[in-house]
Write a structure and sequence with these properties.
By secondary structure, the chain is of the alpha/beta class. The longest helix has 18 residues. It is globular, with a radius of gyration of 16 Å. The protein is 38% helix and 17% strand. Helix 1 packs parallel to helix 2. Strand 6, helix 6 and strand 7 form a beta-alpha-beta unit. It has an eight-stranded parallel β-barrel, surrounded by six helices. The structure holds 4-methyl-5-hydroxyethylthiazole phosphate (TZP) and magnesium ion (MG).
């Protein structure tokens, strides 16, 4: 099975604070690579590559570059959706949804890679834990235009349930912004995945600083 090199931050990653997700569609004049660079400079320690419009080859090329940058910076790099790209660029992790290959099968293929699973209700969360996920996504917390076919979830109520009942790390997602991140924390949020609030920011560095002070 696939094995990452020994010195990777694998499994020792702490899911805490801002989890940055690329989204050049929601930025003006910045590519996914630009966004990743800015996130690294802003001190974000986990970056997910998420891209729904580009070809496999374009995504692969962007991921190759971001993999190099994240390795240099010691940033954890997780690829959304494409297990083949995650393996091809030696990402630290893969993030899958409920309609992707089954988690157990992904684990067989991906070996000790970090595997994150999007969940929207308690049954999905429990299944992700028993099938061996390393962390779960929890959301959508708030409604958002960033994702097409947005799933329904209990939002903050569901997050509270996860915080009390699930032992593996959880990452809140969906509509998280400077003005509501403190509320998410209050309802059990510990790690906050963000797309448009980062991609749309003039300066990601300033936005991350503002998000951190909102969390204090
Ligand atoms: N999954 C649930 S909500 C969402 C995803 C990928 C989109 C999050 O984007 P934003 O812009 O931070 O609301
Ligand atoms: Mg997906």
């Amino acid at each position: 099975a696939y094995q990452l090199e020994k010195n990777f931050p694998l499994k020792r990653v702490v899911f805490d604070g801002i989890y940055g997700i690329t989204g050049e569609t929601f930025a003006t004049g910045k590519t996914n690579v630009d966004l990743a660079k800015e996130m690294i400079a802003a001190g974000i320690t986990v970056i997910q590559y998420r891209e729904k419009e580009k070809s496999k080859l374009e995504k692969y090329h962007q991921c190759q570059t971001i993999r190099r940058l994240t390795l240099e910076a010691g940033t954890t790099f997780i690829v959304n959706d494409d297990l083949d790209i995650a393996l091809a660029v030696t990402a630290d992790g893969i993030h899958i949804g409920q309609d992707d290959l089954p988690l157990k099968k992904v684990r067989q293929i991906a070996g000790n890679m970090i595997i994150g699973v999007s969940t929207h209700n308690p049954d999905q969360a429990k299944a992700a834990v028993s099938d061996g996920a390393d962390y779960i996504g929890v959301g959508p917390i708030f409604s958002t235009n960033t994702k097409k076919n947005l799933e329904k979830s209990g939002g903050l109520k569901y997050l509270e349930w996860v915080a009390e009942n699930i032992s593996i790390p959880h990452v809140a997602i969906g509509g998280i912004k400077e003005e509501n991140i403190a509320q998410v924390k209050k309802h059990g949020g510990k790690c906050f995945a963000i797309i448009s609030e980062l991609a749309g920011a003039h300066s990601i560095e300033q936005k991350v600083a503002a998000l951190h002070s909102a969390l204090e």
